[in-house]
Each structure stands twice: as C-alpha cells, then as structure tokens.
Design goal:
Layout lengths: L43 E5 L15 H10 L4 E3 L10 E3 L7 E2 L5 E5 L14 H9 L12 H5 L9 H4 L5 E5 L2 E5 L7 H4 L28 E7 L3 E6 L17 E5 L4 H10 L7 E2 L21 E3 L4 E6 L9 H10 L2 H8 L5 E3 L26 H10 L6 E8 L2 H15 L3 E8 L1 H8 L8 E6 L11 H5 L18 H11 L4 H18 L2 E7 L1 E3 L5 E2 L14 E2 L6
InterPro entries: Peptide/Ni-bd, SBP_5, SBP_5_CS, SBP_5_dom
GO molecular function: peptide transmembrane transporter activity
Membrane topology: Lipid-anchor
Length: 563
C-alpha cells in the first residue's frame, strides 16, 4: 500500500515492491539511459516481472508498480508531469484544460474538460463519466486503492459508491465539460489528489463487482489486448486516444508485453545477455547478487542509477501485546541491526540505513536518530533494559508478515537474528506477493508486524507520508495504510494543525518535527532507504527510472525493427 509508492517502473516486477503510493521526491536521476536518443515510433516494449500487478482496476490497486502501469491505460483530470520534464514531480493538466479553480474559501474546486476525449470503445468522456469513475472510490469492496479522494471530497458517511448509492453528492456536473468538487475542508494540494490513479473516468454504470479484474475500459494511449493472470499482459494501441489532447504521454511503442512470473536472477541474466527481444526489455531493480557482474565494461553504458525515494520499514501492530507498550517498540528500534539489513538489501549500492520515517528525497525530511548504535548495528543491552521496564525482560515471540522474495527474505532473517539477541523470537508468515498488500492492509488479517514500505503520493510535501501511515482516524477495514494501527490523539491533533498551515515551507518544517514525535512512540522501525540500479535493454531509450515511479509513457526503442 505504496503505497504507493511511488511514474513507477513496476516494483511489482521485482523484489522491490513497496506499499506505496506513486511519486518520487527528487528529480535528480544520474546516468539516465538514452538521453541522446529520441525513441522511434513502433515496436513492442517488454517488461520482465517477478510478480503480477495487484489489480487492473485503478480503484483497487495502489502499489508502486501498478501505478506506473495505470498511466499507460488511464487518464485523469490532472497528472504528474512527464518523467523527463524539468520538474517531473509537478502536477499538470491532463484531461482538464487547466489546473483547478478554487473558490475563495478553498472548499469548491472547478475543472473543465478538453474537447474530443474518448474511451477505447469510442464513447465520449464527459463530466458525467469523470464523476462516475471517481465515485467508485467510495465503493466498500472496490474502492481499496488511493484514499485521498475519500479523505478530501465531501460525502455523507453512508455514501457507498455509485452502484449502491447513486451519484456522488459532493461532485457536480453542471454541463458535459464542467465538473465541480465540494471539499470537506480547504486542501490547497487538491490538484495532486486528482492525479491519483483512482481519479479516472469510466462509462456510467460500468465496472461493477469484479468486471475490471480481467478487462478494462481505457482512456489512455493503450488498451488491454490479452491478460493471463500470473503469466502475461499484452497492451495494444487505443485507436480512440488522440495524442493532440495529451501533452504527457508520448506512447512511442505500438505495443507492450509484461511477462510475469520470472525469477529475479533469471531476469538479470536475460538483461545481461541481451538476446533476441530482450534488447527491448526493462525490469525493476537488479538483484544484489548481480551487482558484481555489472562491473563488465560492456554493460557500463546501460547501467542507470536512481536515488532513494521510499522508506522500507517494519510496522508493529500497536493493538496487540506486547507492541501495545511503547517501551517494547522502542526496544525493537534499538535492537535492530540496520547495517545487516543494508547488507541483506544488497549493500550500500542499493540501500542506506533509515532512522527517520521521511526520506531525504522528500520535502520535510529532517535528520535525526532517536535509537542510535555504533555502526547502525543495534544496541541489544539498551533494548533489554527497556524490555525489563515493560515486564517482558525474559523475551517474547511475534509473527512477522513477509514475502517469499530473496531480498525480503534476507531482510526478515536479519531482523530475526538481531532480535534473537534480546530474547525475541520472530516467526515468519510468508504471504504471496500478489496479495500481500491487500492482506496486511486488512486489519482483521494482520498479525503482529509486517515488512513493507511507503513512497510519497506527491513529492512537494510530506503530507502524503505521515498522515496516511499514522492518522488513527484513517484506519479502515480494507485498504488500510496505518499498519501500526496507531490512534494517538496528540499525533492526530498535530496532523490537523500542520495541514492547516498554508505556507508550504513551514508545513514541511513541521512535518519533519512530527516525524520525530512519531518516532518517540516508535510505531514502526525504519529499516532502509532503498536506492535503485537498473539495466535496461540496449535498444531501450527515453528511460528515466525511479525507485518510486518511472514514467513508462515516454519510454521507447531506438530501432523498432530489432527483437
């Protein structure tokens, strides 16, 4: 639950799949591949993936990998700027003619649609379809994706989406090209909210139940040609997409093919060998074991690096003993050997130890370490003293939700080994990657702790980092991102105070201060900030990768006839 995340190069494609949302926080990406080459039109781009995407339906999915995929299929009123823009984190108009017009009190936002917009079936996209698609976020079964629409747009408590409750009372459509939103309270970043993956149009009354699990109705440059879950996803051009209405998506390839279910080491082998159509392939972050092989001079031109935009952490369920005691959670933070977790992640090339919640790439980051240890290797003695204070000095056991991927497994084992030094026995509960975020995001299915991660939904503010993870009023029965289930009145109050600050710089300063206040309560243990090393195929160009959100819509091939 990204979740992110973080335009994303499918974290689902690798062991780097984080609970995140979609956008990164730093436009600096060294060694961007193919900077001197403009992609040619045509050919088929290939994505080699370890795991399937969570959902084709954007109302349901909200992890980093699938958010990038959605950008190929769907459009919203606004969107994150292109990955090669001067500021790739900016929010720009997409289906709308311009950004929103806010009323003087900040409670009403108005947008006007461009002319000539169509779905892949040829039906027009008007304000009615826009309102319908957005209102799907309120459906109790379908609307488990990005929470921002529900958090900002005014709606009765019993509104349950368009299928059960009809038209959304907080969204008005006075004419086919105008759509008006009524907000719960002023939210100056509302343009960012409408850039979320679930704020997209669909034909009225479409997509009920599980309709969109294996099929889609696209508004973007591509539509679904073939889908075999766990095996392959093929996209073809949406002939009703008009490039004249889309300043963001270049859509150079004629088709995309996502090959699913490949072991990470096999993906690396194929990219290194570069045979056949693998010259046209991209994937997620390379495996740690592959890094020494990238010293080969023949591969140097293809290596692309990306800084860390996301935080990998271990949540602790504060509703369950002994994690309902702050001393226990603080002890865990003291005992964890973050240097070992860096090594488990692939070493310093791929990760830095994390002692804060907000990463340095996100506005609002402030450097501090409340649980220091020499070399970030943990302080078992200090941890034991806290466990004694909590009455569990003899130790205890807990269950850690994790995934059967080599890197995540290694991180889990590093936690096991570190905590064994303070008498804590960690039992691993391995969950399938494709259902992992849905499982841990359902409080009734949560165990004691989970390894996950978070990327900002937009980078200019830490408002998308701390509130989703720690505002106790946002805990939901499904799609819950507050995995620690922290519901602290003081933290909730501070969130409200900071959200009311209109000066963005001052607000970010206060988000950094709140980071430390939350870490005093220790509902999570930050583990690492994960960086990226990528190896695209030699025929790939226009590739601007991110550990949070790579823009797939500007990637193409140097020579479409190859492969």
């Amino acid at each position: 639950m990204k979740r992110k995340t973080l335009g994303v190069v499918a974290m689902a494609a690798t062991a780097m799949m984080l609970l995140t949302s979609c956008s990164g926080g730093n436009s600096e990406v060294p060694n961007e591949a193919g900077q001197g080459d403009t992609p040619a039109s045509g050919g088929t781009m290939v994505m080699l993936q370890n795991a399937d995407f969570s959902y084709l339906d954007p109302a349901r999915g909200f992890d980093g990998g699938v958010n990038a995929f959605y950008r190929l299929l769907y459009r919203g009123l606004t969107a994150q700027a292109a990955g090669d823009a001067a500021d790739p984190n900016a929010i720009v108009p997409d289906l709308a003619e311009g950004l929103g017009e806010a009323s003087e009190d900040g409670l009403t936002w108005t947008y006007r649609l461009k002319d000539g917009l169509k779905f892949d079936n040829g039906e027009p996209i008007t304000s009615k379809e826009m309102a319908f698609g957005i209102s799907r976020a309120w459906d109790p079964e379908i609307g488990i994706g990005s929470p921002w629409l529900k958090q900002t747009i005014e709606a009765p408590e019993d509104y349950a989406g368009p299928y059960k409750s009809g038209e959304h009372p907080g969204i008005e459509t006075p004419d086919p090209s105008t759509i008006v939103f009524q907000l719960k309270e002023p939210f100056p970043e509302f343009d960012n909210v409408l850039a979320q993956s679930n704020a997209v149009p669909f034909p009225v009354n479409s997509g009920a139940g599980d309709t969109f699990l294996k099929d889609v109705i696209a508004s973007g440059p591509y539509t679904l040609a073939e889908y075999t879950p766990g095996s392959v996803i093929k996209l073809e051009r949406n002939e009703n997409w008009d490039a004249k209405t889309d300043d963001l998506r270049k859509a150079y390839p004629d088709a995309w093919e996502f090959v699913v279910g490949i072991d990470g080491s096999t993906i690396d082998e194929r990219l290194i060998a570069g045979q056949g159509r693998d010259v046209n392939a991209i994937a997620g972050v390379v495996q740690a074991a592959t890094l020494p092989r990238l010293q080969d001079p023949k591969l140097a031109e293809r290596i692309v690096n990306s800084p860390a935009f996301c935080t990998t952490y271990m949540s602790m369920n504060t509703t369950k003993a002994p994690f309902d005691q702050v001393e226990v959670r603080q002890a865990i933070n003291l005992a964890i050997d973050r240097s070992a977790i860096v090594n488990a992640t692939g070493g310093t090339t791929l990760a830095d130890p994390a002692t804060t919640i907000i990463p340095a790439a996100v506005s609002g980051h402030r450097e501090f370490d409340l649980y220091p240890s020499e070399g970030n290797s943990g302080d078992p003695e200090a941890a034991k003293k806290l466990l004694d204070q909590a009455g569990v000095g003899s130790g205890f056991s807990f269950t850690l939700d994790t995934r059967a991927q080599p890197k995540i497994q290694a991180q889990s084992e590093a936690i096991q080994q570190a905590l064994s030094k303070i008498g804590v026995d960690v039992k691993l509960n391995v969950i399938d990657t494709s259902t992992y975020y849905e499982t841990i995001g359902t409080p009734s299915q949560q165990t004691d702790a989970a390894i996950t991660g978070w990327c900002p939904d937009w980078a200019s503010s830490a408002s998308t980092f701390l509130p989703p993870l720690f505002d106790g009023r946002l805990i939901t029965e499904k799609g819950n991102s507050n995995l620690a289930q922290l519901n602290d009145d003081a933290i909730n109050g501070r969130i409200d105070e900071i959200k009311a600050i209109t000066d963005l710089d001052e607000a970010n300063t206060q988000w950094g201060n709140l980071d430390e206040e939350i870490m005093n309560l220790a509902p999570i243990a930050p583990l690492v900030f994960e960086k990226g090393v990528f190896l695209p195929g030699e025929n790939v160009t226009g590739y601007h990768p991110s550990t949070s959100m790579t823009d797939l819509t500007i990637i193409g091939l140097k020579d479409p006839s190859r492969g």
